[in-house]
Specification:
Blueprint (H helix, E strand, L loop, with lengths): L10 H10 L2 E3 L11 E3 L1 H20 L4 E4 L7 H6 L2 H4 L1 E6 L6 E3 L23 E4 L2 E4 L9 E4 L4 H6 L1 H7 L6 E10 L14 E11 L4 H18 L7 E5 L11 E9 L2 E12 L1 H10 L5 E2 L6 E2 L2 E8 H12 E6 L2 E6 L10 E5 L6 H12 L5 E3 L5 H11 L3 E5 L1 H6 L1 E6 L5 E5 L3 H9 L2
Parallel strand pairs: 3-9, 19-20, 19-21
Antiparallel strand pairs: 1-2, 4-5, 4-6, 7-8, 9-10, 10-16, 11-12, 12-13, 13-16, 14-15, 17-18, 21-22, 22-23
Helix pairs in contact: 2-9
This protein binds adenosine-5'-triphosphate.
Length: 441
């Protein structure tokens, strides 16, 4: 059986994201900035949930990983040492007719029609283009004040290697994880939030003895794939793809991508790279500080090797949205629903009074206030109940609870399940246990 993308195009997802407040085009009232996006009230909740799920799995639920939050602007020498000043280049081609510039390896992603030439674009020879954003630090703009916005979070980890080792009790093998903004002056930024100029990354550098690196690399390849599956992404639309030697980045010894089957085909979601001892070695050379591991028992000193799982937060969100998006026909009525895993869903439970009178709102408010102590909850009393359910379906809310006249008599409410559409009466006294059963937390 050939696997199909969940949706044919991102268009309905982009429309839903705007309509329901997940993602907006940046500076839209000024015509928008094509390569930047803003998260709206529902989107920001999803983003926090994705980051939280990653941090829980990668840091808090492990004994061998610690966290870090380094600054975006770093010493310019960092980027010389890392190779980004010299090597963070993409070959760029320019259309002779309309001047459109695209990455030479991403020509297929560019608009096919040339506005100035009927026969389509005609691209010239590729030229190299550095992807780092340059700016200046301090009041005087001169060469000495040139700094970069980081194009990856990883270097903040490498330059803090000694600080972490000296201030904690970490023992090899161990990891340092970080989440934060990165910036790349990307040339090809279509496809919604897939590739943008400003984005967030969740990266972890896992340091180990050189002889262990292969085993650790294998472990993290599988572990990272499983993370998406555990959070509800359809495993048929996920795969691991090993890079061919000519695809490897300048620092990488081996690399695999977790790929997802987007509407535009299989594309990278996360990279798992075996970076050898390149980064610590280079920073030792450029800074003059020995970024080594000192084994207290054997007396050995060596530069650890590193495995790096690097995920784009925004790209992960796009996958969760794309995979959850479902259009269904329920007895002749169409419905759009986001079948998010409960951990990812922006709202876990919505509470409705059936009527805006007869004591329903008071009872529903009371329930809502109790539940929001534990969950991100939502209260809604406007419009008919069917419409309220459909709004929550589009927001991806797994559970809706409705207070009606029977509630006032026997203290039960209707629990409606987003995916099965099953409705059943549940006693208010056991509502928390019921929700734990349905949501898993
Ligand atoms: P691509 O070629 O697909 O743009 P990359 O191979 O350059 O990505 P890496 O340098 O391996 O990406 O970065 C690690 C992860 O960060 C990627 O797997 C992706 O999820 C995310 N990422 C990288 N660049 C961007 C971007 N411009 N916008 C959004 N996410 C990005």
């Amino acid at each position: 059986m050939t696997v199909q993308p969940n949706v044919e195009s991102l268009d309905p997802i982009v429309a839903l994201c705007k309509r329901r407040g997940f993602v907006f085009l940046s500076s839209e009232i000024y015509g928008g900035l094509g390569s930047c996006w803003d998260y709206g009230p529902l989107g920001v909740e999803v983003k926090r949930n994705v980051k939280d799920a990653w941090w829980r799995a990668m840091v808090q639920q492990r004994d061998d990983v610690v966290g870090l939050d380094a600054s975006i602007i770093m010493h310019p020498r960092v980027w010389e040492a890392s190779g980004h000043v010299a090597g963070f280049n993409d070959p760029l081609v320019e259309c002779r007719h309309c001047g459109l510039r695209v990455r030479a390896d991403k020509i297929d992603e560019s608009p096919q029609k040339c506005p100035k030439h009927e026969g389509g674009h005609e691209f010239g020879e590729p030229r190299m283009f550095n992807l780092m954003f340059k700016t200046s630090l301090g009041p005087v703009e001169d060469a000495a004040s040139t700094v970069y916005l980081r194009p990856e979070t990883a270097q903040g980890i490498f330059v803090n290697f000694l600080n972490v080792v000296d201030s904690t009790r970490v023992k090899l093998p161990f990891g340092i994880a970080q989440q934060g903004k990165s910036f790349r002056n990307e040339i090809t930024t279509r496809r919604f939030t897939f590739r943008t100029a400003e984005f967030e990354q969740m990266e972890m550098e896992y340091f180990c003895r050189p002889e262990e690196v292969k085993e650790r690399y294998e472990y993290w390849r599988q572990e990272r794939l499983q993370w998406f599956i555990k959070l509800g992404v359809n495993p048929d639309r996920l795969r691991l793809r090993d890079h061919a030697p000519d695809e490897l980045a300048h620092y990488s010894v081996a690399c695999a991508d977790v790929e997802y089957l987007f509407p535009f085909g299989w594309s990278e979601l996360e990279g798992i790279a075996c970076r050898g001892c390149y980064d610590l070695g280079k920073h030792s050379e450029y800074s003059g500080k020995k970024l080594e591991w000192h084994d207290q028992t054997t007396g050995e000193r060596f530069i650890p090797h590193v495995v790096e799982p690097a995920l784009g937060t925004d790209r992960a969100i796009l996958v969760f949205l794309t995979d959850a998006y479902t259009e269904e026909d329920i007895d002749g009525n169409p419905r759009t629903v986001l079948k998010f895993h409960p951990k990812i869903a922006p709202t876990k439970v919505a509470v409705f009074p059936l009527l805006r009178k007869d004591g329903h709102p008071e009872k529903a408010q009371e329930l809502y206030r109790t539940l929001r102590e534990h969950y991100s909850a939502f209260y809604d009393e406007s419009g008919n109940i069917g419409r309220r359910y459909r709004r929550q379906d589009e927001a991806g809310t797994p559970v809706c609870l409705t207070v009606d006249h029977q509630t006032l008599e026997d203290n039960t409410v209707t629990l409606r399940d987003r995916d099965s559409l099953e409705q059943r009466r549940v006693a208010l006294g056991s509502i928390r246990e019921e929700l734990i059963k349905v949501l898993g937390f």
